[in-house]
Design goal:
single chain; six-stranded mixed sheet; two-stranded antiparallel sheet; alpha/beta
């Protein structure tokens, strides 16, 4: 039996739980700047011990709702996981409605439905892919990356390095592990 799923939630706080070796947890979040019609997507990938492997901050345009932004962020994070050649992933998001929608076999004929269909197809391309809900406090690093994407000149990808602006959030997050 495996060791865990990435996060344990107790008494209002979220704490890291070790994963099976070879599994990577990716926290994902989206941020929207409606007045500019842009949105940011942030993700942080951690190994089974909680060490940061890679971070991503990307920008998108012309999305109508926050829920679609969250779904687009999950889709981009799964594409990124493929680019990183990850086989076993757990995706965590603070958007419970998207987690529910991805776990149900309901086809939605809408913009959101199209993004969710893409996500389900991407999920099937991994050896193991699970989507889970996490409280916002457990998603702080991904949230900072999504906000960063709104202000960055272009998309930012870091592998085996942590950008300077993110270091305080990673440190704070590690202290809660």
């Amino acid at each position: 039996m495996g060791r865990g799923s990435g996060a344990v939630q107790r008494h209002g706080e979220t704490r890291w739980k070790p994963l099976d070796e070879g599994t990577v947890k990716i926290n994902v979040d989206g941020a929207i700047a409606e007045h500019h019609r842009v949105f940011g997507m942030g993700a942080v990938a951690r190994d089974h011990c909680g060490e940061v492997l890679a971070t991503m901050a990307c920008r998108g345009r012309d999305v109508a709702t926050a829920e679609i932004v969250e779904a687009c962020s999950i889709r981009r994070a799964m594409q990124w996981a493929q680019e990183l050649n990850l086989g076993r992933v757990i995706i965590e998001t603070d958007c419970a409605s998207i987690v529910t929608a991805l776990s149900e076999n309901v086809a939605l004929n809408s913009d959101l439905g199209n993004v969710l269909s893409d996500c389900k197809l991407l999920m099937s391309s991994f050896l193991h892919c699970q989507i889970k809900h996490v409280r916002r406090t457990g998603n702080a690093v991904a949230h900072e990356l999504a906000k960063r994407a709104l202000q960055a000149e272009g998309d930012e990808f870091f592998r085996n390095a942590i950008p300077d602006y993110l270091a305080p959030f990673i440190t704070r997050n590690k202290l809660s592990m």
